[in-house]
Design brief:
- The chain is mainly beta.
- The chain has a single domain (22-460), classed as 7 Propeller (Methylamine Dehydrogenase, Chain H), CATH 2.130.10.10.
- The protein has 2 helices and 34 strands.
- The chain has helices spanning 2-19, 163-167, and strands at 33-34, 51-56, 66-68, 71-77, 90-97, 103-110, 130-132, 135-139, 144-149, 159-162, 180-182, 185-189, 209-213, 219-222, 240-244, 247-253, 258-263, 275-276, 278-284, 313-315, 318-324, 334-340, 346-351, 361-363, 366-370, 375-380, 386-391, 402-404, 407-411, 416-421, 428-433, 443-445, 448-452, 456-460.
- The strands form 8 sheets. A 5-stranded mixed beta sheet has the order 1-28-29-30-31, with no helix packed on it. It has a 5-stranded mixed beta sheet with strand order 11-12-13-14-18, with no helix packed on it. The chain has a 4-stranded antiparallel beta sheet with strand order 2-34-33-32, with no helix packed on it.
- A hairpin with a 2-residue loop joins β28 (402-404) and β29.
- It is globular, with a radius of gyration of 21 Å.
- The chain starts with a helix and ends with a strand.
Length: 462
Protein backbone atom coordinates (compact mmCIF):
# COMPACT_ATOMS: atom_id res chain seq x y z
CA UNK A 1 0.00 0.00 0.00
CA UNK A 2 2.80 2.42 0.90
CA UNK A 3 4.44 1.91 -2.51
CA UNK A 4 1.13 2.59 -4.26
CA UNK A 5 0.68 5.82 -2.28
CA UNK A 6 4.22 6.95 -3.06
CA UNK A 7 3.75 6.16 -6.75
CA UNK A 8 0.50 8.16 -6.78
CA UNK A 9 2.21 11.15 -5.12
CA UNK A 10 5.04 11.04 -7.66
CA UNK A 11 2.57 10.80 -10.55
CA UNK A 12 0.47 13.70 -9.29
CA UNK A 13 3.60 15.79 -8.72
CA UNK A 14 4.80 15.06 -12.26
CA UNK A 15 1.45 16.14 -13.65
CA UNK A 16 1.54 19.39 -11.68
CA UNK A 17 5.05 20.17 -12.90
CA UNK A 18 4.09 19.32 -16.47
CA UNK A 19 1.19 21.77 -16.24
CA UNK A 20 3.50 24.67 -15.35
CA UNK A 21 4.77 26.97 -18.11
CA UNK A 22 8.33 27.57 -16.96
CA UNK A 23 9.58 29.41 -20.03
CA UNK A 24 8.40 31.28 -23.12
CA UNK A 25 6.96 28.57 -25.39
CA UNK A 26 7.34 24.83 -24.88
CA UNK A 27 10.73 23.68 -23.67
CA UNK A 28 11.42 21.17 -26.47
CA UNK A 29 10.37 23.20 -29.54
CA UNK A 30 9.37 26.75 -28.42
CA UNK A 31 5.91 26.20 -29.88
CA UNK A 32 3.20 28.48 -28.45
CA UNK A 33 0.87 25.55 -27.73
CA UNK A 34 -0.36 24.25 -24.38
CA UNK A 35 -2.05 20.97 -23.41
CA UNK A 36 -4.28 22.75 -20.88
CA UNK A 37 -8.03 22.04 -21.06
CA UNK A 38 -11.17 23.45 -19.51
CA UNK A 39 -10.22 27.05 -20.29
CA UNK A 40 -12.88 29.75 -20.69
CA UNK A 41 -14.19 31.06 -24.00
CA UNK A 42 -14.85 34.46 -22.44
CA UNK A 43 -14.45 36.46 -19.22
CA UNK A 44 -15.42 39.83 -17.78
CA UNK A 45 -13.06 42.00 -15.78
CA UNK A 46 -15.87 44.24 -14.45
CA UNK A 47 -18.14 41.48 -13.14
CA UNK A 48 -15.20 39.15 -12.39
CA UNK A 49 -16.85 36.36 -14.39
CA UNK A 50 -14.18 33.66 -14.99
CA UNK A 51 -11.60 35.82 -13.20
CA UNK A 52 -9.48 34.14 -10.51
CA UNK A 53 -7.55 37.27 -9.53
CA UNK A 54 -6.07 40.56 -10.75
CA UNK A 55 -2.84 42.17 -9.51
CA UNK A 56 -1.16 45.47 -10.29
CA UNK A 57 2.12 45.61 -12.23
CA UNK A 58 4.06 48.69 -13.32
CA UNK A 59 2.88 51.09 -16.03
CA UNK A 60 4.73 49.49 -18.97
CA UNK A 61 4.78 45.70 -19.09
CA UNK A 62 6.24 43.96 -22.13
CA UNK A 63 7.07 40.66 -20.43
CA UNK A 64 5.15 37.39 -20.77
CA UNK A 65 3.95 35.73 -17.52
CA UNK A 66 5.91 32.61 -16.55
CA UNK A 67 4.31 30.08 -14.18
CA UNK A 68 6.29 27.55 -12.15
CA UNK A 69 6.36 26.09 -8.67
CA UNK A 70 3.23 27.90 -7.50
CA UNK A 71 4.57 31.31 -8.53
CA UNK A 72 3.97 33.69 -11.43
CA UNK A 73 6.88 35.83 -12.64
CA UNK A 74 6.36 38.94 -14.78
CA UNK A 75 8.87 41.49 -16.08
CA UNK A 76 7.64 45.09 -15.88
CA UNK A 77 8.75 48.61 -14.89
CA UNK A 78 8.67 50.57 -11.63
CA UNK A 79 5.82 52.88 -12.65
CA UNK A 80 3.73 51.81 -9.65
CA UNK A 81 6.45 51.34 -7.00
CA UNK A 82 5.90 48.48 -4.56
CA UNK A 83 8.86 49.64 -2.51
CA UNK A 84 8.27 53.18 -1.13
CA UNK A 85 12.03 53.55 -0.72
CA UNK A 86 12.65 53.00 -4.44
CA UNK A 87 10.73 55.11 -6.95
CA UNK A 88 13.54 55.32 -9.53
CA UNK A 89 13.08 54.25 -13.15
CA UNK A 90 13.97 50.55 -13.04
CA UNK A 91 13.44 47.19 -14.61
CA UNK A 92 11.45 44.91 -12.31
CA UNK A 93 10.86 41.17 -12.04
CA UNK A 94 7.70 40.69 -9.95
CA UNK A 95 6.58 37.48 -8.28
CA UNK A 96 3.01 36.51 -7.33
CA UNK A 97 1.34 33.50 -5.75
CA UNK A 98 -0.24 31.46 -8.53
CA UNK A 99 -3.26 30.55 -6.42
CA UNK A 100 -4.53 33.99 -5.39
CA UNK A 101 -2.24 36.66 -6.87
CA UNK A 102 -0.64 37.62 -3.59
CA UNK A 103 2.43 39.79 -4.20
CA UNK A 104 5.51 37.83 -3.09
CA UNK A 105 8.35 40.20 -3.92
CA UNK A 106 10.46 41.62 -6.71
CA UNK A 107 13.94 42.26 -8.00
CA UNK A 108 14.78 45.67 -9.46
CA UNK A 109 17.60 46.93 -11.67
CA UNK A 110 18.13 50.68 -12.27
CA UNK A 111 17.97 51.74 -15.90
CA UNK A 112 21.22 52.38 -17.76
CA UNK A 113 21.42 56.17 -17.81
CA UNK A 114 24.43 56.88 -20.06
CA UNK A 115 22.35 56.86 -23.25
CA UNK A 116 18.57 56.29 -23.50
CA UNK A 117 19.05 53.99 -26.50
CA UNK A 118 21.01 51.54 -24.37
CA UNK A 119 18.02 50.97 -22.07
CA UNK A 120 14.93 52.91 -23.14
CA UNK A 121 13.40 54.95 -20.28
CA UNK A 122 10.19 53.75 -18.60
CA UNK A 123 10.06 50.47 -20.54
CA UNK A 124 11.27 48.49 -17.56
CA UNK A 125 12.47 44.94 -18.11
CA UNK A 126 11.08 42.99 -21.07
CA UNK A 127 12.63 39.52 -20.96
CA UNK A 128 10.50 36.62 -19.70
CA UNK A 129 12.00 34.45 -16.99
CA UNK A 130 13.06 30.82 -17.45
CA UNK A 131 12.55 28.65 -14.36
CA UNK A 132 14.14 25.30 -13.58
CA UNK A 133 13.59 23.64 -10.22
CA UNK A 134 14.11 26.36 -7.59
CA UNK A 135 16.12 28.71 -9.82
CA UNK A 136 15.11 31.59 -12.08
CA UNK A 137 17.26 32.62 -15.04
CA UNK A 138 16.60 36.09 -16.44
CA UNK A 139 18.13 38.76 -18.69
CA UNK A 140 17.54 42.16 -17.10
CA UNK A 141 17.35 45.61 -18.67
CA UNK A 142 21.07 46.18 -18.04
CA UNK A 143 22.02 43.29 -20.37
CA UNK A 144 22.97 41.11 -17.41
CA UNK A 145 22.14 37.41 -17.12
CA UNK A 146 21.18 36.49 -13.55
CA UNK A 147 20.61 33.22 -11.71
CA UNK A 148 18.14 33.89 -8.87
CA UNK A 149 16.29 32.04 -6.14
CA UNK A 150 12.73 31.31 -7.26
CA UNK A 151 11.56 31.54 -3.64
CA UNK A 152 13.00 35.05 -3.24
CA UNK A 153 14.35 36.77 -6.38
CA UNK A 154 15.35 39.77 -4.28
CA UNK A 155 18.14 37.75 -2.64
CA UNK A 156 21.66 38.26 -4.02
CA UNK A 157 22.04 36.35 -7.30
CA UNK A 158 23.84 33.03 -7.31
CA UNK A 159 25.80 34.49 -10.22
CA UNK A 160 25.71 37.38 -12.72
CA UNK A 161 27.10 37.51 -16.24
CA UNK A 162 27.37 41.01 -17.71
CA UNK A 163 27.07 40.71 -21.50
CA UNK A 164 28.57 44.17 -22.10
CA UNK A 165 31.86 43.50 -20.32
CA UNK A 166 31.81 39.71 -20.64
CA UNK A 167 30.74 39.26 -24.27
CA UNK A 168 31.43 42.70 -25.76
CA UNK A 169 27.88 43.49 -26.85
CA UNK A 170 26.23 46.89 -27.41
CA UNK A 171 22.66 46.80 -26.03
CA UNK A 172 19.95 48.68 -27.88
CA UNK A 173 16.58 49.90 -26.48
CA UNK A 174 16.23 46.95 -24.10
CA UNK A 175 16.91 43.24 -24.08
CA UNK A 176 14.12 40.84 -24.98
CA UNK A 177 15.70 37.46 -24.46
CA UNK A 178 14.06 34.20 -23.44
CA UNK A 179 16.69 31.80 -22.14
CA UNK A 180 16.67 28.24 -23.50
CA UNK A 181 18.00 25.49 -21.21
CA UNK A 182 19.74 22.53 -22.83
CA UNK A 183 21.35 20.16 -20.35
CA UNK A 184 23.84 22.10 -18.25
CA UNK A 185 23.85 25.11 -20.58
CA UNK A 186 21.84 28.27 -21.20
CA UNK A 187 21.39 29.54 -24.77
CA UNK A 188 20.30 33.15 -25.25
CA UNK A 189 20.27 36.01 -27.71
CA UNK A 190 22.33 38.97 -26.51
CA UNK A 191 20.26 41.96 -27.67
CA UNK A 192 23.30 43.53 -29.32
CA UNK A 193 22.48 46.19 -31.91
CA UNK A 194 23.07 49.63 -33.37
CA UNK A 195 24.00 52.81 -31.48
CA UNK A 196 21.83 55.89 -30.95
CA UNK A 197 22.30 57.04 -34.56
CA UNK A 198 20.69 53.81 -35.82
CA UNK A 199 23.34 53.81 -38.54
CA UNK A 200 26.39 52.34 -36.82
CA UNK A 201 27.29 49.06 -35.10
CA UNK A 202 29.95 49.96 -32.53
CA UNK A 203 30.84 46.38 -31.55
CA UNK A 204 31.20 44.53 -34.90
CA UNK A 205 32.62 41.40 -33.26
CA UNK A 206 29.82 41.04 -30.71
CA UNK A 207 27.97 37.70 -30.66
CA UNK A 208 24.23 37.48 -31.25
CA UNK A 209 23.95 34.06 -29.57
CA UNK A 210 25.90 32.94 -26.51
CA UNK A 211 26.02 29.87 -24.28
CA UNK A 212 26.58 29.97 -20.50
CA UNK A 213 27.11 27.26 -17.90
CA UNK A 214 23.89 27.34 -15.89
CA UNK A 215 25.60 26.42 -12.62
CA UNK A 216 28.29 29.11 -12.69
CA UNK A 217 27.48 31.62 -15.44
CA UNK A 218 30.76 30.77 -17.22
CA UNK A 219 30.88 31.97 -20.84
CA UNK A 220 31.08 28.65 -22.72
CA UNK A 221 30.41 29.30 -26.42
CA UNK A 222 29.25 31.84 -29.00
CA UNK A 223 28.35 32.11 -32.65
CA UNK A 224 31.11 33.38 -34.93
CA UNK A 225 29.18 33.91 -38.16
CA UNK A 226 30.01 37.62 -38.58
CA UNK A 227 26.43 38.68 -37.91
CA UNK A 228 26.99 41.90 -35.95
CA UNK A 229 28.12 44.31 -38.73
CA UNK A 230 24.91 43.63 -40.66
CA UNK A 231 22.42 43.97 -37.79
CA UNK A 232 19.80 46.43 -38.99
CA UNK A 233 18.40 47.29 -35.54
CA UNK A 234 18.98 44.77 -32.73
CA UNK A 235 18.99 41.06 -31.85
CA UNK A 236 15.59 40.26 -30.38
CA UNK A 237 14.87 36.70 -31.54
CA UNK A 238 15.45 34.01 -28.92
CA UNK A 239 16.86 30.56 -29.78
CA UNK A 240 14.85 27.35 -30.05
CA UNK A 241 15.53 23.62 -30.10
CA UNK A 242 14.54 20.63 -32.22
CA UNK A 243 15.46 17.00 -32.82
CA UNK A 244 15.97 16.22 -36.50
CA UNK A 245 16.73 12.65 -37.57
CA UNK A 246 17.83 11.80 -34.02
CA UNK A 247 20.14 14.80 -33.84
CA UNK A 248 19.46 17.89 -31.75
CA UNK A 249 19.81 21.34 -33.29
CA UNK A 250 19.79 24.86 -31.90
CA UNK A 251 17.91 27.29 -34.15
CA UNK A 252 18.66 31.02 -34.04
CA UNK A 253 17.51 34.05 -36.03
CA UNK A 254 20.18 36.74 -36.13
CA UNK A 255 19.67 40.49 -36.23
CA UNK A 256 20.82 40.31 -39.85
CA UNK A 257 17.64 38.44 -40.85
CA UNK A 258 19.44 35.11 -41.33
CA UNK A 259 18.29 31.92 -39.60
CA UNK A 260 20.99 29.49 -38.44
CA UNK A 261 21.04 25.89 -37.25
CA UNK A 262 23.87 25.06 -34.82
CA UNK A 263 25.12 21.87 -33.24
CA UNK A 264 24.65 22.05 -29.45
CA UNK A 265 27.87 22.59 -27.55
CA UNK A 266 29.29 19.51 -25.79
CA UNK A 267 28.00 19.15 -22.25
CA UNK A 268 31.54 18.63 -20.92
CA UNK A 269 33.20 21.49 -22.84
CA UNK A 270 36.49 22.38 -21.16
CA UNK A 271 37.12 25.67 -19.39
CA UNK A 272 38.90 28.36 -21.36
CA UNK A 273 38.05 30.79 -24.13
CA UNK A 274 34.46 30.46 -25.46
CA UNK A 275 34.34 27.95 -28.28
CA UNK A 276 32.66 28.68 -31.62
CA UNK A 277 29.28 27.05 -32.21
CA UNK A 278 29.37 24.73 -35.22
CA UNK A 279 26.96 25.85 -37.94
CA UNK A 280 24.94 23.15 -39.67
CA UNK A 281 23.12 25.36 -42.18
CA UNK A 282 21.78 28.88 -42.68
CA UNK A 283 18.64 30.21 -44.34
CA UNK A 284 17.89 33.66 -45.75
CA UNK A 285 14.27 34.65 -45.16
CA UNK A 286 14.60 37.63 -47.54
CA UNK A 287 17.13 36.78 -50.28
CA UNK A 288 16.32 39.96 -52.23
CA UNK A 289 17.04 42.21 -49.26
CA UNK A 290 20.49 43.82 -48.89
CA UNK A 291 22.97 42.02 -46.63
CA UNK A 292 25.76 44.64 -46.35
CA UNK A 293 25.82 48.39 -45.81
CA UNK A 294 22.29 47.89 -44.50
CA UNK A 295 22.00 51.14 -42.54
CA UNK A 296 21.65 53.24 -45.67
CA UNK A 297 18.05 51.94 -45.67
CA UNK A 298 17.18 53.25 -42.19
CA UNK A 299 13.73 54.92 -42.38
CA UNK A 300 13.19 53.53 -45.89
CA UNK A 301 9.66 52.08 -45.87
CA UNK A 302 9.79 50.53 -49.34
CA UNK A 303 13.10 48.66 -49.51
CA UNK A 304 15.82 47.41 -47.20
CA UNK A 305 16.89 44.38 -45.14
CA UNK A 306 14.72 42.15 -42.99
CA UNK A 307 14.75 41.55 -39.25
CA UNK A 308 13.23 38.77 -37.13
CA UNK A 309 11.65 39.50 -33.74
CA UNK A 310 9.81 36.27 -32.89
CA UNK A 311 11.36 32.87 -32.22
CA UNK A 312 11.79 30.13 -34.80
CA UNK A 313 9.42 27.24 -34.00
CA UNK A 314 10.20 23.57 -34.67
CA UNK A 315 7.37 21.14 -35.47
CA UNK A 316 7.26 17.80 -37.32
CA UNK A 317 10.69 18.16 -38.87
CA UNK A 318 10.02 21.69 -40.08
CA UNK A 319 11.02 25.13 -38.87
CA UNK A 320 8.58 28.04 -39.00
CA UNK A 321 10.09 31.53 -39.12
CA UNK A 322 8.38 34.92 -39.47
CA UNK A 323 10.03 38.24 -40.22
CA UNK A 324 10.45 41.11 -42.62
CA UNK A 325 11.06 44.84 -42.56
CA UNK A 326 11.81 46.33 -39.15
CA UNK A 327 8.63 47.66 -37.51
CA UNK A 328 10.29 50.90 -36.42
CA UNK A 329 12.77 51.67 -39.19
CA UNK A 330 12.23 49.36 -42.15
CA UNK A 331 10.17 48.39 -45.18
CA UNK A 332 6.54 47.36 -44.93
CA UNK A 333 6.93 43.72 -45.95
CA UNK A 334 6.79 40.52 -43.92
CA UNK A 335 6.45 36.78 -44.43
CA UNK A 336 5.80 33.52 -42.64
CA UNK A 337 8.21 30.89 -43.95
CA UNK A 338 8.46 27.12 -43.61
CA UNK A 339 11.91 25.50 -43.80
CA UNK A 340 13.12 21.91 -43.88
CA UNK A 341 14.79 21.67 -40.47
CA UNK A 342 17.32 19.11 -41.71
CA UNK A 343 18.70 21.18 -44.57
CA UNK A 344 17.48 24.78 -44.26
CA UNK A 345 15.70 24.53 -47.62
CA UNK A 346 12.61 26.73 -47.95
CA UNK A 347 9.40 24.71 -48.39
CA UNK A 348 6.87 27.52 -48.70
CA UNK A 349 6.34 31.26 -48.15
CA UNK A 350 3.20 33.11 -47.01
CA UNK A 351 2.96 36.90 -47.17
CA UNK A 352 1.88 38.85 -44.07
CA UNK A 353 0.77 42.47 -43.66
CA UNK A 354 3.33 45.22 -43.11
CA UNK A 355 5.50 43.88 -40.24
CA UNK A 356 5.41 41.16 -37.62
CA UNK A 357 6.70 40.89 -34.05
CA UNK A 358 5.14 37.51 -33.28
CA UNK A 359 6.21 33.90 -32.90
CA UNK A 360 4.15 31.32 -34.85
CA UNK A 361 1.99 28.71 -33.12
CA UNK A 362 1.75 25.33 -34.88
CA UNK A 363 -1.17 23.08 -33.99
CA UNK A 364 -3.16 20.29 -35.65
CA UNK A 365 -1.77 20.89 -39.15
CA UNK A 366 -2.23 24.67 -38.95
CA UNK A 367 0.07 27.62 -38.31
CA UNK A 368 -1.37 30.62 -36.49
CA UNK A 369 0.36 33.97 -36.89
CA UNK A 370 -0.28 37.63 -36.12
CA UNK A 371 1.07 40.88 -37.53
CA UNK A 372 1.00 44.63 -36.97
CA UNK A 373 -1.56 44.96 -39.73
CA UNK A 374 -4.08 43.98 -36.99
CA UNK A 375 -4.53 40.57 -38.63
CA UNK A 376 -4.54 37.00 -37.33
CA UNK A 377 -3.63 34.42 -39.99
CA UNK A 378 -4.45 30.72 -40.11
CA UNK A 379 -2.23 28.89 -42.62
CA UNK A 380 -2.08 25.27 -43.72
CA UNK A 381 1.17 23.90 -42.25
CA UNK A 382 1.77 21.47 -45.13
CA UNK A 383 1.13 23.77 -48.09
CA UNK A 384 1.48 27.34 -46.86
CA UNK A 385 -1.95 28.19 -48.25
CA UNK A 386 -4.10 30.61 -46.28
CA UNK A 387 -7.08 29.02 -44.50
CA UNK A 388 -8.57 32.21 -43.02
CA UNK A 389 -7.69 35.66 -41.73
CA UNK A 390 -9.35 37.89 -39.16
CA UNK A 391 -8.60 41.61 -38.99
CA UNK A 392 -9.55 43.65 -35.97
CA UNK A 393 -10.92 47.20 -36.07
CA UNK A 394 -8.08 48.54 -33.93
CA UNK A 395 -4.83 47.52 -32.31
CA UNK A 396 -1.69 45.95 -33.75
CA UNK A 397 -0.52 42.57 -32.52
CA UNK A 398 2.90 42.59 -30.84
CA UNK A 399 2.08 39.47 -28.83
CA UNK A 400 2.14 35.95 -30.22
CA UNK A 401 -0.92 33.71 -30.56
CA UNK A 402 -1.16 31.13 -27.77
CA UNK A 403 -3.11 27.93 -28.49
CA UNK A 404 -4.74 25.93 -25.69
CA UNK A 405 -7.91 23.86 -25.30
CA UNK A 406 -8.80 24.35 -28.97
CA UNK A 407 -8.71 28.13 -28.57
CA UNK A 408 -6.45 30.95 -29.70
CA UNK A 409 -5.69 33.69 -27.16
CA UNK A 410 -4.02 36.99 -28.09
CA UNK A 411 -4.04 40.66 -27.08
CA UNK A 412 -3.48 43.92 -29.00
CA UNK A 413 -1.64 47.16 -28.42
CA UNK A 414 -5.02 48.88 -27.94
CA UNK A 415 -5.94 46.60 -25.05
CA UNK A 416 -8.32 44.30 -26.93
CA UNK A 417 -8.13 40.60 -26.06
CA UNK A 418 -9.23 38.04 -28.63
CA UNK A 419 -10.39 34.48 -28.02
CA UNK A 420 -10.96 32.45 -31.20
CA UNK A 421 -11.40 28.83 -32.20
CA UNK A 422 -8.02 27.33 -33.16
CA UNK A 423 -9.24 25.34 -36.16
CA UNK A 424 -9.96 25.45 -39.87
CA UNK A 425 -13.33 27.07 -39.31
CA UNK A 426 -13.04 30.72 -38.34
CA UNK A 427 -14.96 31.46 -35.18
CA UNK A 428 -14.57 34.37 -32.75
CA UNK A 429 -15.55 33.45 -29.21
CA UNK A 430 -14.96 36.89 -27.70
CA UNK A 431 -13.25 40.26 -28.17
CA UNK A 432 -12.80 42.00 -24.84
CA UNK A 433 -11.53 45.45 -23.90
CA UNK A 434 -9.02 45.27 -21.03
CA UNK A 435 -8.31 49.01 -20.91
CA UNK A 436 -4.53 48.85 -21.31
CA UNK A 437 -2.18 47.84 -24.11
CA UNK A 438 -0.98 44.22 -24.31
CA UNK A 439 2.54 43.45 -25.53
CA UNK A 440 3.23 40.08 -23.92
CA UNK A 441 1.87 36.69 -24.94
CA UNK A 442 -0.80 34.98 -22.85
CA UNK A 443 0.27 31.94 -20.82
CA UNK A 444 -1.81 28.84 -19.99
CA UNK A 445 -0.88 26.82 -16.91
CA UNK A 446 -2.74 24.64 -14.43
CA UNK A 447 -6.20 25.43 -15.81
CA UNK A 448 -5.69 29.20 -15.93
CA UNK A 449 -4.83 31.72 -18.65
CA UNK A 450 -2.53 34.52 -17.46
CA UNK A 451 -2.62 37.81 -19.36
CA UNK A 452 -0.38 40.79 -18.65
CA UNK A 453 -1.58 44.20 -19.78
CA UNK A 454 0.65 47.24 -19.39
CA UNK A 455 -0.62 47.75 -15.82
CA UNK A 456 -2.10 44.51 -14.53
CA UNK A 457 -1.82 40.75 -14.61
CA UNK A 458 -5.14 38.90 -14.94
CA UNK A 459 -5.65 35.23 -14.06
CA UNK A 460 -8.55 33.83 -16.12
CA UNK A 461 -10.15 30.50 -15.29
CA UNK A 462 -13.50 28.83 -14.85
Amino acid sequence: MRSIILFTIVLLTARLIAADRAQFGRAWDRNMVSAETGLPETFDVKTRANIRWIADLGTETHGTPIVAGGRVFVSTNNGQPRDPQNATDSGVLMSFAEKDGKYLGQRTAPKLSDDPYLDWPKTGQSSPATVESDLVYIVNNRAQVLCLSAADPAKPPLWIFDMVSGAGIWPHDGAHSSILIHGRHLYLNTGTGVDNTHRKVRTPDAPGLIVLDKATGRFVAREREGIAPNIFHATWSSPSLGRVGGKEMIFFCGGNGITYAFEPVAQDVAAGEPVALRKLWQYDLDPEGPKTDVHRFTQNKSEGPSNIFGMPVFADGKLYVAGGGDIFWGKRKAWLKCVDAATGRELWSYELNKHTMSTPAVHDGLVFMADVGRTIHCVDAATGKGVWTETGPRGDFWASPMIADGKLYIGTRKGDFWIMAAGREKKVHATLELGSAISGTATAANGVVFVATMKQIIAIGK
